[in-house]
Amino acid sequence: MAVKIVTLVVLVLLLGAPVVSSVTLPESTPLLARLSATLLPLLILAATLPFIVRGYVLTEGELRIERLGWQNRFKLADVKSVVADPEAMRWSIRLFGSGGLFGFFGIFRNKTLGTYRAYGTNPKNTVVVELRQLTIVVTPDDPKRFVAEVTQRCGGAASPEPAAS
What we know:
By secondary structure, the protein is an alpha+beta fold. The chain has three helices and nine strands; from the N terminus they run H-H-E-E-E-E-E-E-E-E-E-H.
């Protein structure tokens, strides 16, 4: 629900800003300022849109994160652990990415996970997937089922609890 609210509010702001600026800015406003006020919000929207997380696909060998026109792929052979943890993103700071517009995606950091990559839309459904070189957080509709599927597809090699650091 939080993503939908944030997305709606930010969309209204990003789409409203060019309209408001084109109507309210005086003619004496420099051209660069007028263009920035009109185009920058639309560029932010256009730059964020391709990163929307549309879903997750588990195959025998990989986890695919479906985006708008492309995918992130992670080998299941690299999975060290997988655990459902609804508090995983708590107290995280966003280093780069989106903190609510169309989802939570990008590079984040918190004390529990360290630096990780998030690919999700519902921070209450978080699943932490610790890979050999990277930790990712995803938000499937059914976290327990997702954990069971990943564990099964890894041949039981992925532990259901995070490895000790």
